Amino acid sequence: MPAYQKTVLKNGLRVITERRPSVRSISLGVWVDVGSRHESPAENGITHLIEHMVFKGTHRRTARQIAGTLESLGGVLNAFTSREQTCYNARIIDEHLEDAVDILADISCHASLTPLNLKREKLVICEEIKEANETPSDLIHDMFSETFWNGQALGQPILGSMEKVMGLTRRRVVDYIKRHYRSESVVIAAAGNIDHDRLVNLVRKSFRFEKGAADRAEPTTLTDRPRVKHGPSDTGQTHFCIGYPGVSFDDREKLATVLLTTYLGGGMSSVLFQKIREARGLTYSVFAFHDAYRGSGVFGIYMATDKDRLGEAYSIVKKELSRVSKRRLSSARLDQIKNQMRGQFSLSLESTASRMSRLARNELMLGKHVTVAQTMKRIDALTSSDVLAISNRILVDSGSVIVTLGPVNTSLFDHVTKQQT
Question: pLDDT by residue (tens digit) across 104-136?
Fold first, then answer.
């Protein structure tokens, strides 16, 4: 049997699988192509609220029954909301596939959304928001996104605000589900010891989504926005983010951007970790990140340090960003990072959950399957010239945004503020 298979049902619902007969587990996910990016300002937080609400009861099951159905079989049921997708997922032993399909179909298609449960879950999410707001390392990333995207939906916090969440009505929740939980915008993905035809038959019998496709999110534009923003200073450390326009999920230079991210801040051997933490002891945490979305992306660096050490750490960041934009990586360093990328990718493939997620994201974002061999070949083909080119493409001073949270000497960033004016 082929490892990868795809079936599109008459209503447009897609079922994709990757068979791994060497394992006993199956990771199964219901991927809905909707996230916080699809929300209007008045709806901010509604996608995440719905993710919570489907676990609170259906017409057939109570919240307790939902929680216990797969756990009693040794399985796991979970969900998450991102800026562009919502995923309801289960990991089970292969013999319990029918149970997993049944409960995932039940919660994603038949949630009861009672007013009492809605009221209670809003309070739960408010506590989640409080916890995030009291965790500076989380809060600064929300602040950074809001500043970087400057009023666009992609910059909205996934959790929303307490005020907006409490103001969401059941009618608005139901309407949002009808608009976005539509058959052509849903992918059922599975990886593990899975029989594709059996899963297709189970999906055909169990899932009932409104026919059609959901509306696409509005495209983003990099309009004028604040270059520097400082948050409250009532924390012990200064948390710092600097970011630049990155590349989209389907950009041909995405892997080169991943390599750049790995070189600068992708682990203990990265240049920023070695020079900022190991050589000078300026910070405990420092890393680079790249988030690729439809039509856009963001590349950034985060660190947390003492107010009096921020200047030295920031100077090192600027120096290394300048260096990588002017000099090619040595062959030895390039090979080391490519080995790191290949190794991390290979290790992720040992997880059926990672394989399932990879299947679904590629289907939703690219509309096609990307084989492991294709990805490995593209990593192998990366050159130092590719890294230099992507560095010069995205690490442009005029496109940078700096956000701090905590005590800070604002004069450190006067040069950026002057560039803006």
Answer: 999 999 999 999 999 999 999 999 999 999 999
Rounded CA-CA distance 409/277 in Å is 21
Give the predicted TM-score (pTM) of the model: 0.95
- State the Cα–Cα distance between residues 33 and 309, nearest whole angstrom: 43
Q: Which helix (H) or strand (E) holds 312?
A: helix 307-326
The CATH number of 228-420 is: 3.30.830.10
Structure tokens at 239: 């948390």
Q: Is 221 exposed, middle or buried (0-12, 13-18, 19+ CB in 10 A)?
A: exposed
The kind and range of the H/E element at 92 are strand 86-93
Q: Which residues are catalytic?
A: 51
| Of 18, 87, 94, 2, residue with least CA distance to 349 | 18
Amino acid present at 171: R
Could you tell me the residue ranges of all domains in the chain? 4-206, 228-420
> b/e for 355-391, b at 16 or more Cβ within 10 A?
bbbbbbbbbbbeeebeeeeebeeebeebeeebbbebb
Check: CB of residue 153 under 8 Å from CB of residue 36. yes
pLDDT digits (tens, 9 = 90+) for 313-328: 999 999 999 999 999 9
- Report the Cα 189 to chain-centroid distance in Å: 17
Assess contact for 45 and 39: CB atoms under 8 A: yes
Separation CA 77–CA 99 (nearest Å)? 11
User: 4-206 and 228-420: same fold?
Assistant: yes
Q: Match domain 4-206 to its CATH number in 3.90.930.12, 3.30.830.10, 3.40.50.2300, 2.40.110.10.
A: 3.30.830.10
Q: How far apart are CA 191 and CA 27, in angstroms?
A: 5
> Rounded to the nearest 5°, which phi and psi values hold at 192?
135, -150
